[in-house]
Specification:
The chain is built from seven helices and six strands, in the order αααβββαβαβαβα. By secondary structure, it is of the alpha/beta class. The chain has two domains: 67 residues, no CATH class; 135 residues. The strands form two sheets. A four-stranded parallel sheet has the order 4-1-5-6, sandwiched between helices. Helix 1 packs across helix 2, helix 2 packs antiparallel against helix 3 and helix 3 packs across helix 6. The chain starts with a helix and ends in a 19-residue tail after the last helix. Bound molecules: iron/sulfur cluster. The site of iron/sulfur cluster has 13 residues, from helix 4. The site of iron/sulfur cluster (SF4) has 13 residues, from helix 4.
Length: 233
């Protein structure tokens, strides 16, 4: 009956539990905030597994707290991408290159790019006007599948068709972050490379980071001479 002692007791218990959960969430939010701020300042990620879980569940709260302290959402997104790359690195390395795919955004192309649209994306003609042509040749020789993405649903379509176990996604910060999160939901080891400039045409990729990732786990004997400088020891 409402108003009876057991009922009031249960209500009080629920109230106490709710306050406890809220305090716990706020506490975790603050810990993640401190760890994220430390990562932004030093580039060093402490407790990456805890941070990934925390940022996944408390991203909104952490972003809100960050805004209070004058940080931008992009700072949090960058940390999320770096975290995911750090945590996925070992699993990515273990995947044979034939089971990996690379997705380049079409904005990296030159404005005068002569590539035509095909069922499997834009077909690069290696015209030399942008660096995709050279990268595509190197990557395909190594065994990668390489795609130039013409639109948002394309990546999912190619994943469904070829079932890569690992992918490298290049693009603007938000695209890369969302791509990595989508990949982890479907058990694909994704590594992200954030563009150095944004826009719709002639953007620039972080090629050094890109090749360092692309060469992970590749037999050194098979790495072309021009790419040796990117190989991490
Ligand atoms: S190298 Fe390929 S992607 Fe780049 S502009 Fe030429 S055809 Fe287009």
């Amino acid at each position: 009956m409402i108003g009876s002692a057991p009922y009031a007791h249960i209500l009080m218990l629920i109230g106490e539990l709710t306050v406890l959960i809220i305090l716990l969430i706020l506490f975790c939010g603050f810990i993640i905030l401190i760890l994220t701020a430390y990562a932004i300042r030093t580039g060093n990620i402490l407790f990456p597994t805890f941070m990934r879980g925390g940022l996944l569940f408390l991203e909104g709260l952490v972003r809100g707290l960050f805004r209070v302290f004058g940080f931008e959402d992009t700072d949090v997104f960058r940390i999320i991408v770096t975290l995911q790359n750090t945590l996925n690195r070992r699993a990515f390395m273990a995947v044979p290159v034939q089971e990996r795919a690379v997705f380049f955004p079409q904005c990296l192309r030159a404005a005068a790019c002569p590539a035509h649209l095909h069922e499997e994306g834009l077909k690069c003609r290696s015209c030399g006007l942008c660096r995709i042509g050279e990268a595509r040749q190197h990557l395909e020789e190594l065994g990668y599948r390489v795609f130039i993405v013409p639109g948002s649903s394309f990546i999912k379509r190619m994943i469904k068709k070829y079932h890569p176990r690992a992918i490298i996604g290049v693009g603007c910060l938000l695209e890369v972050k969302e791509g990595i999160e989508m990949s982890s939901q479907i058990n694909i080891n994704a590594m992200g490379v954030v563009n150095m400039s944004d826009g719709c045409v002639e953007t620039s990729a972080d090629w050094k980071t890109f090749y360092q990732i692309a060469l992970l786990g590749i037999d050194p004997e098979k790495i072309p001479k021009d790419l040796k400088k990117y190989q991490e020891s």
